[in-house]
Design goal:
Shape: globular
Number of helices: 19
Distance between the termini: 7 Å
Helix content: 25-40%
Strand order of the largest sheet: 12-11-10-7-2-1-14-13
Radius of gyration: 25 Å
Strand content: 15-25%
Length: about 625
């Protein structure tokens, strides 16, 4: 078995695309790693576990315009009506499902096996106060949960996209929302400060001293439908109403019932308001109500039934009561299994920006969510790859894997990422944290960060445009650049990394060094069970300054062991590292590896500045 891994390593060893790749068996291997990514055998969809995937996350509106006829979503008027203004960073730019489908070759060329895209449900086109309007191009302001937003195409075009991806062996992950809908409900009081359940109980109108209402309601922790039938007056905190033009705008129709919402004002993200408050004005559903629970199960179960999708990323998961997820997740897994989808991947957004696993593990345990986006990994990678923190930070973060429900094995299914559409792009964090905008250094650190994401545990998730050197000016709208030629001045003045291109031109360059590197790392990961499913043992790390991080990955099923090593510092290093005494030899998988063990239980690793490698530890297994 070990010799098979060595032969794979010979195929995958980079020439010049990955820094410092050494000779294999005394010869320099100059294989084209992108070609290897395209030809490396990938198991069929039904044979792949969650840990086997490589995810690409994309905002369809900012990717490719396959049909300019749908740019305005069939809505007349100007940008404030239809939401289309390609020169405005907060409005629709024209990308759609046809465009995304047309670029599947490009996406798969990186070795991607699963596509996760921002929500494509029908949205309120424009919302916001006068002078502060923006559009629903991102997909999180849903009015109709049953159909594709006409700016993106049709349900038939969505089916064509899913079928095309599946025909290539690629999985499709939908981004879904259960916490809220678009901002349709208003308050007659004209103010939106959060009003708590203690000061404004369900049993009184407008405060504890108000007139009695909702007689017999026993509280929202009682899930009995008969109990919720007694909550028929929504005027306990505010006086909610819907303007005539929008009274029936939500689909399914039950979503138009204002008693199914919390109606307590805007969240301030702490305590009770984090679950019961409106998400920046968006109508916050009362997910404690059994009618909402059953309704959401029906909605998203139907998308599984009709399109055979392979997973859900759940938006704002921590802002929903745990009991909702305890009902919703098993229902979705059962629905998927009935469709023959045994590895349906559900991962929630539990948003925070700290290099820790604590909050994610807590919410997963309380809600019984199987997986979450690995926010802690993103922050640790940003700080360590930029040199702001020593490798000790990542080492200690990986040591927290034991606290997830199910332990370290659960961490293998957490989607890891470096930056995203909410917080900002990885290259921006590296520039800010390192204090340097030198192009060569930024590229080297970006490569280092991607190597960490692919060689350490978790499911690597590439944010669209990172492979083309995109570098945001900030978070949110500033981190949602166009891959197609952009007309947004705030995007087009950015100096991208690894290229002389700008976002003013089409950016689907398969020769970009980051695109090539991602393909190379994807090929290595696909070929290595230890990189996909191996548990982690931290072997060495620099404690107080940039330098060495060494992690051994071991997959008990195959017996394979891989040593992943990283140099986060600006100078070369050479150091002996402890490895398993089961190791009998060394072979390169990625980058520069020694030709042999230094001694039983030790290898001597040499890495260039910002270098990395993955070395197969040959055993007799």
């Amino acid at each position: 078995m070990t010799r098979i891994f060595v032969r794979i390593a010979a195929v995958l060893c980079a020439g010049t695309a990955i820094s410092g790749c050494a000779a294999f068996a005394g010869e320099t291997i100059a294989a084209n790693r992108v070609a290897a990514a395209a030809t490396a055998p990938v198991p069929a969809i039904s044979e792949r576990g969650l840990e086997d995937e490589i995810i690409y996350f994309v905002l369809p509106d900012r990717f490719e315009n396959g049909d300019p006829r749908n740019d305005r979503g069939g809505i007349t008027g100007g940008p404030l009506q239809h939401g289309f203004d390609p020169a405005h960073k907060g409005f629709y730019h024209g990308g759609d499902l046809k465009g995304l489908t047309s670029r599947l070759d490009y996406i798969q060329g990186m070795g991607v096996t699963a596509i996760w895209f921002a929500p494509i449900f029908k949205n309120k086109p424009v919302q916001g106060r006068p002078g502060e309007e923006s559009a629903g191009y991102h997909g999180y302001w849903v009015t109709d949960f049953t159909r594709v937003d006409p700016h993106f195409g049709t349900n038939a075009e969505f089916k064509a996209f899913v079928d095309a991806a599946h025909a290539r062996g690629m999985k499709v992950y939908m981004d879904i929302i259960t916490n809220h809908t678009a901002d349709v409900i208003d308050y007659r009081e004209g103010e939106y400060t959060y009003r708590s359940k203690g000061e404004y109980p369900f049993s009184r109108r407008g405060g504890a001293e108000g007139a009695p209402i909702n007689e017999g309601f026993a509280g929202d922790d009682n899930p009995d439908p008969a109990n919720w039938a007694r909550l028929n007056d929504p005027n306990f905190a505010y006086t909610p109403f819907v303007r005539e033009a929008e009274k029936s705008v939500k689909v399914p129709a039950w979503l138009n019932d204002v008693t199914l919402y919390h109606n307590r004002g805007d969240s301030h993200w702490v305590g009770e308001s984090a679950v019961y408050g409106d998400f920046v004005g968006l109508d916050d559903l009362a997910t404690e109500n059994p009618r909402v629970v059953s309704g959401m199960i029906d909605i998203f179960g139907q998308w599984i039934d009709d399109y055979g999708i392979d997973g859900f990323r759940i938006d704002t998961a921590k802002h929903v009561n745990p009991e909702f997820w305890q009902a919703f997740v098993p229902a979705m897994l059962t629905r998927a299994k009935a469709k023959g989808i045994d590895h349906f991947h559900i991962f929630g957004e539990i948003a925070y920006e700290e290099p820790t696993a604590t909050l994610a593990a807590q919410v997963m345990a309380q809600s019984r969510l199987p997986y979450a986006l690995d926010m802690g990994f993103a922050k640790a990678a940003q700080m360590v790859a930029s040199g702001k923190a020593s490798p000790r930070l990542m080492a200690e973060f990986l040591g927290q894997d034991a606290i997830y429900p199910g332990g370290a094995k659960t961490a293998l299914g957490l989607p890891t990422f470096l930056g995203n559409h909410d917080f900002g792009r990885f290259a921006m964090f590296v520039r800010e944290m390192s204090g340097s905008d030198d192009p060569a250094t930024l590229l080297a650190r970006a490569r280092l960060g991607h190597a960490m994401m692919f060689l350490l545990r978790g499911v690597p998730t590439v944010y669209y445009g990172d492979e083309q050197g995109f570098i945001s000016d900030g978070n949110d709208q500033l981190a949602r650049e166009d891959m197609m030629p952009s007309k947004v001045a705030a995007y087009n003045d950015n100096r991208l990394i690894g290229t002389v291109a700008t976002t003013a031109q089409s950016n689907f360059d398969t020769a970009h060094p980051l695109y090539r590197q991602i393909g190379e790392l994807a090929a290595a990961r696909t070929a290595s069970p230890a990189l996909r499913r191996g548990l982690s043992t931290v072997r060495a790390f620099e404690e107080a300054a940039p330098g060495l991080l060494a992690v051994e990955r071991h997959d008990p099923a195959s017996g394979q062991r891989v040593l992943a090593v990283f140099n986060t510092g600006p100078a070369p290093l050479s150091q002996s590292i402890e490895v398993s005494y089961a190791a009998r030899g060394v072979a390169p998988l990625v980058g520069q590896c020694p030709a042999a063990l230094a001694a039983p239980g030790a290898v001597r690793i040499s890495l260039p500045a910002f270098g990395f490698a993955a070395c197969i530890l040959e055993t007799e297994d």
